[in-house]
Amino acid sequence: MAKFQFVLLIHGHQPIGNFDSVIEQAYSHSYLPFVQLLEKHPKIRIGLHLSGCLLEWIERAHPEYFDLLRGLESRGQVEMIGGGYYEPILISIPPEDRREQIERMGDYLEKHFGRRPSGGWLTERVWEPQLPTTLAASGIEYSLVDDNHFLGAGLDAAQLRGAFVAEDMGACVHLIPGLKLLRYLIPYREPHETVEFLRGAAAGHPGGFVATGDDCEKFGVWPGTYEHCYRDRWLERFYEALEAEHEWLETATPGEAVRSHSPLGRADLPAASYNEMMEWALPTAARLRFEAIEKEFASRADVQPFLRGGIWRGFMAKYPESNLLQKKMLHVSAKVRRLALSRRRGSNFHAAREKAEALLLRSQCNDAYWHGVFGGVYSPHLRTAPWRALVEAEAIADGLAHREASWAESKRCDFDADGHEEICFTSEAYSAVLCPADGGTICALDFRPSNMTLINSIARRPEAYYKRLKHLATGEAHEAVSIHDQVRAKEPGLEKLLRYDRWDRDCFRTLVFPATQTFADYEHLRLEADAGIAAGSYVAGDLSETGVTLCYKAADGRHSCKAFVFRRNDDGFELAVNLELSGADGPTLVGIETVLNFLAPNQADRYFEVGGQRQPLQWSANVPGNKLRVVDRYQNVAVTLSAPGAREIWISPIETVSDSEGGFERVYQGSQILAVWPAEFKDGETWRGGLSLKVDRAH
After folding, report:
1. Cα dihedral sign, 302-306-312-315
2. Each residue of 478-514: pLDDT tens digit?
3. What domains are there in the chain, each with its CATH number?
4. What is the CA radius of gyration of the chain?
5. Catalytic site residue from 215, 227, 495, 580
6. Gap between the terminal Cα atoms of the chain
7. pTM higher than 0.90
8. pLDDT by residue (tens digit) across 461-475?
9. How far apart are CA 88 and CA 14, in angstroms?
10. Which residue of the set 73, 79, 124, 655 is catalytic?
11. Is there a catalytic annotation at residue 506?
12. Alpha helices of 379-505 — where are they, by DSSP H?
């Protein structure tokens, strides 16, 4: 009788934009020792998927690692698994880009390891029913998703002892259920517990197989796991326990298991991911209700399969910053794809087009688009990497489409797919998205000479996990427990930072508030600003290539108009907004807010400059006067803010508290900068003021 098979599919990934020191530590604590130990146990066979981002880094920093992998693959101990090269969430990118991502990964693995992959890793196991068409067309014969997907389709957990067939429009792919139970056993429980589960599965399904797929980082990178897996020998004891059962059990690569077993049937799966991801995708209020329901039915095994959170696309509604990045990516993708239709020839054109396409694909790396224990929408450096790639890719595409050296254009469109019209301004120096329906603000502003985006902040909003902060005792936990069960903080008192923005962190929001309020109110988000003027729906007038006027009128007669004008200069551009207000009552303060994020709040090469004095970006201050310079010498950009007639400028850092693999942490998300004017409204008088941003290179 054929032995029962156990399939272990290991996945390793590091996001674009991550720090070399972080990746180096992950390499030395996980990727290298994991494979070195595997080499000592030749009877253990696994599937291994390393993202293209990580493979590129390893090829550059540790090429000897590839020799180790080639040896393991040549003796059949490791099967290299494909997938999207830059680890995209496939359903979030255009079909043409999906295929290009998968094919690039196949090309890379074939070049370096001599064999094109037949299996594909599905990033974050995000599945939607149309994916078989993409996967099959790209040469992917099988993938792994969670048992959660199958249970949600009505299958019983005991049935998941092999692979199933998923189909879309006649295109088929084999799907392997990855068992959540095994994810939680490995490496947190004693090896014999996994063996006992496998023994029971083999008794019920002789000759079948079970599988699990999980992160390589849980073997050495996650808190406590390096000591647990290697110093305390958990991983070696696990391999030894599997080898000891060789009479009835063997490990197999995913491809071997799929090829040697007939499919168990058809599986029509709903849109899903792993349980935790589906919970994270829920809006905060819904997530809190969901957690309560899960707790209520924790003992009901018959109910658990039907308790489901949201789907991955929910992050686009939960975090407008994620949605904006994803829509920017789609916008740039369309521009890059149009280049393929061009009749232009020549090596320069083709080289530029290929560079733009590579940058586009790089921007699709998943990490910055979502948030849970993992996911980097709260991580500015992870958001910045795709933004930079998109700014450069779009500039290349626009440069190829506009042959003249200097040009400017504007257009109306629903850029962020929210049902409201935006206005896009572009030139060789800048790209901007203006949002009339959100207070006439600018949500994205790119400085093309340095390939960077200037705003790139995130609103402070309630998160379901904040309720744990008050129960948290700061300190290091040394035991190895699941990343989902850990509760820790990187510093005490983080709960005191919890405050929530009324509006998205955009530029040129107008704040009209009582003259009795102070800078301290601004710091603590207590301004009683007029909501209509700040975030109401403005109506756009005539549109030129470089400007537009927006107006808001309330039912009680309050009126606000903003005139935006872009001007180019030799080294960058200037963006000015002229404001008119009427209908307010009595002594009032008027503010025009700017949000800038230059990432590193305490680095000497990034600073505020006032009156010849430099201050770090984490500076919080009430600055007399009407001029301010913000400098980022690392990214080579400087912004000079001028607000003629303003009495003072209020500066306050935007700091979030977010959950991460290492625990709760404070994160600098840029600075909010408010130019403040005193205003006295009498007898229907109109108040006028304005602010400009001059953006150029820092050196």
Report:
1. negative
2. 444 444 455 678 788 888 889 999 999 999 999 999 9
3. 4-261 (3.20.110.20), 459-696 (2.70.98.10)
4. 27
5. 215
6. 73
7. yes
8. 999 999 887 677 444
9. 12
10. 124
11. no
12. 380-401
